[in-house]
Amino acid sequence: MKKITLLIIAFVTFSCSQAQKAQKTEFSEKALSETLLASDGSQIKFQDILKKQKGKTTVIEIWASWCGDCVKAMPKLKELQANNTNVSYVFISMDKTADKWKEGIEKHQIKGSHFMANDGMKGSFGSAIDLDWIPRYIIIDKKGKIVVYRAIETDFAQIDETLKKI
């Protein structure tokens, strides 16, 4: 039993240290060059979306209207927005159709800048940002540096704390 406990402790310690190593401070060239669908129907490169956020603390949420965890997190997100009005919010949807994406924005009254990946969660943009779960939150500081690369719906305390620090 002691061996199993020690094995579990070693695995958790290793996993946590690997997760910390995965923290990135900038996006890959592949991610930056990916194009997303803007709410006006045009295509825009991810790097151009980020350029518009220059000088602003920004929270990026990757979500989808069909995602139960995303919908459950909406009240927490709205509370985060109410408590951090000086922060810019960018939403990137992983919906399969633009109609479903726009219906989700309207239904949940999501305030911020809206974009949609052209090929879903498992597509090239999702791959370029190491997407393995939604909702996913990324925090970028005013200088354009990634401060939090991977937070999920259970990490709102960490997200709020980070926003207060930067």
Automatic annotation (TrEMBL):
KW Disulfide bond (keyword) present: yes
GO BP, one annotated term: cytochrome complex assembly
Any matching Pfam family: Redoxin
Signal peptide: 1-21
Coiled coil spans: none
One GO location term (cellular component): cell envelope
Keywords: Cytochrome c-type biogenesis, Disulfide bond, Isomerase, Redox-active center, Signal
GO molecular function: isomerase activity; oxidoreductase activity
Intracellular or extracellular location(s): Cell envelope
Superkingdom of this protein's organism: Bacteria
Gene3D superfamilies membership: Glutaredoxin
Record has Ribonucleoprotein as a keyword: no
UniProt-listed SUPFAM superfamilies: Thioredoxin-like
Domain Thioredoxin: 25-166
CDD domains xrefs: TlpA_like_family
Protein name in the entry: Thiol-disulfide isomerase/thioredoxin
